[in-house]
Amino acid sequence: MHRPPSVFLDANVLKASVDTRLVLVPEPQKIEWGGREFEVDVHRPVFVNQNTKYLAQGNRERFEDTVALRFIAALAKEGRIKLLMHQEVLFELMGLPRATGEGPKFYGAPIENVEGPFEYGRIAFDGTGRDYQYEFLSRVEYPRFKELQRACGAYRGPKKPLHRNQLLDAFHILCAESAAATYFLTLDDSLIRVLTGRWPRKTTVTPITPKRLLISLVCRRPTWLWSIWRERRCLSKSGRKLDAAAQDASREFLA
To answer: Which of 12, 145, 159, 244 has the smallest CB count inside 10 Å?
Structure first.
């Protein structure tokens, strides 16, 4: 039986999938009351897409990566690929700004929460603001994890603290290896370069951006284009324009 390719999701990918956030934009309006004229702010509901910042920066390639996430989710909904995630990815996501929005996580695609390479328990949050995730991971003594820390750039010397972002990258890669994932989906170009830049390979999973993953999957299986076409049609019917920074949401908000 054919086993679908498995894709481990990085936290930055999950954040980028939040392309529909509802915000209330104040608009000044003049009203008359008791024979006097006042200016007040009336808040209009608007859907915003935080990923259009890449268009403003002239980085269309990265914007297309964020659009590709919708089609990757569509393939997962049809069982053509398998999405994976570890709980530490979710904990990292919860600490990122603007990481939640309208609709289900990753467009409602099924995501399997995988076990890590070893069992452990730790404090997640307690309201004090302590970075328990970093404190725990920096104390983990696991040989393969140590190797990946060096490969990802977290290790900066015996007397220097581990770099937080690269430390998380190393652990996510470790979890992806433990789950025998085919791909590690990320928007971190520097991580991809350090893991694939030299031979021999530093990991058994393939770090890849969303657009390149989509192209790779469709080139191998051209019939999967129908899944992408169906998702494009649904998006067109919804009236959502992903390249628009803001769209009026009055109809949805008042429905």
So the answer is: 159
